[in-house]
Amino acid sequence: MTEPAPVPPPTPPTPPTAATAVAATAPPTAAPSAPAVPTSFTGDAAPYRGGDPYADYRTADLPYTHLVDLADRRLGASVIAANDEFFAERENMLKPGPAVFDPERFGLKGKIMDGWETRRRRGTDAGRPHPAEDDHDWALVRLGAPGVVRGIVVDTAHFRGNHPKAVSVDGTSLPGAPSPDDLLADEVTWTPLVPRTDIGGHAANGFAVDAERRLTHLRVRQHPDGGIARLRVYGEVAPDPGWLAALGTFDLVALENGGRVEDVSDRFYSPAVHTIQPGRSRRMDDGWETRRRRDRGHDWIRYRLAEQGEIRAVEIDTAYLKGNAAGWASLSARDNGPAADDWTEVLPRTRLQPDTNHRFVLPAPVVATEVRLDILPDGGISRLRLFGSLTDAGAARLTARHRRLGG
Ligand SMILES: NC(=O)NC(NC(N)=O)C(=O)[O-]
After folding, report:
1. Using a 6 Å cutoff on CB, does residue 162 contact ligand 1?
2. Which of 233, 300, 204, 221 is nearest to 78 (CA)?
3. Ligand 1: does its nearest atom lie under 6 Å from the Cβ of 403?
4. CA nearest ligand 1 atom 7, residue
5. Is 92 near ligand 1, meaning CB less than 6 Å away?
6. How remote is the CA of residue 84 from the centroid of ligand 1, in Å?
7. Which CATH architecture has domain 18-123+130-237?
8. pLDDT tens per residue, range 364-407
9. Where is the composition biased (Pro residues) (predicted)?
10. Interface confidence (ipTM) of the complex
11. Burial of residue 105 (number of CB atoms within 10 Å: 0-12, 13-18, 19+)
C-alpha cells in the first residue's frame, strides 16, 4: 500500500499563540538549528490601543515547533516553584492555547495578566533606586517527560511594557521526584540552554537550543523582573529504558514513552499529537479532528514508535467525536530496513462507532518502528494505543541513546 499524498496544512483563521502560529506553517521534518540564537525581537511593544490585541504581536517561523512541547501541562509538566508571583500566577505559563487579554480586567493587586508576572524590583536606597545587575526572578519547571530540548519559546504576549528585559534558561536532570529545595541545592549542576538574552515585549521570543542531554527540569530566569505569558519547550522525549523494561508491555506510541507523530494529512482543527497524549480525551478538541473532505481522498497520521517493538493489541478511541468520528479506520506498519517503504496492513478497514473505544487483539504480533493510521473518509479519533513490548534490538538502541544523553 502506498502512502497517501499529504494535504498541505491550512492557514489558521484566528490569531494564535506563538506555538500554534508557527506549528501551522513549520515544515514537518525540519532539522533543529545548532547554536542558541535568539529571534530579533527586543524592546517594548507599543501600548495597547484597542481592537484585536494580537494585531501587533511579533512572531516568526521557528524550525523546532513541530516537535513535542515537553512543558505541556497535559503531559504532566508543572511550574513547581517561583520566587515571586505577585501580579500573576506562575502556572499560567504552561496553559495550552494563546494567552488571553481583557483590557477591562483589574483585580485588587493590579491588571489581571494571563502569564507569570512578578512585582517591580527596586534598588537598595534613594541613591541606588534601580535593581542591581544580577537581580532576577526565577521559576522551576518540571518537564512533562524527560527529554532533549531543541528549542524554547518565551512568549510575552500582552506584556508590552512589563516584559523582562532579558531571560535565561538552564536545564538539569535529577532522578525521582525532586522537591524545589532539592533543585535549589548548590550541588545541582545546570546546563545553560538560553544564555541571558534581551527579549521583546508582546512577542514570541524563540531560541534554538544545542544541548544533547536528557533533562528533567528547567530554571527560567527573568532579568530583572517582569512577565512571561507562555513557555514552550520543544524537543524529543527520552524515556527511561529501565522503566519500560520493568513494565514489559506498554503503549509503544504514547508520547510519554517516546512515541511521536511524524506527519499528518490535516492539521485544521486540532493537532495529531493529541492522539498519543496521556489519559482519555475529555472533550472534542482534546482529540484529532480533520476538515470535511469534499474530494475522494482520506486522512491519515504517520507515527514513529518509541523504538522497534512488537505490537500485540490496539485501541482506537473516538471519545467525544460524535457527529464527526472517522467512518472507518485501518492500520499499517513498517519496520526499518532495506524495504522500509513497504507498508503491511495489520488492521483491515474497520467500521468505527462514534464516542467509543475500540479494542483489537492482532492475530499475530507485528514488529514495527512506524505505524500509519488511515481514517476514511475524514473526521477524527481521540486516541491511538499500540500495546506491546520492545524487541531486543529496540531495547538495546534505547539503552545506548539513554547513556549517550547522560541518563
Ligand atoms: N499595567 C500593568 O500591567 N502594570 C503592572 N502589572 C500589573 N499586572 O498590574 C506592572 O507594574 O507591570
Report:
1. yes
2. 233
3. no
4. 111
5. no
6. 14
7. Sandwich (2.60)
8. 999 999 999 999 999 999 999 999 999 999 999 999 999 999 98
9. 1-16
10. 0.96
11. exposed
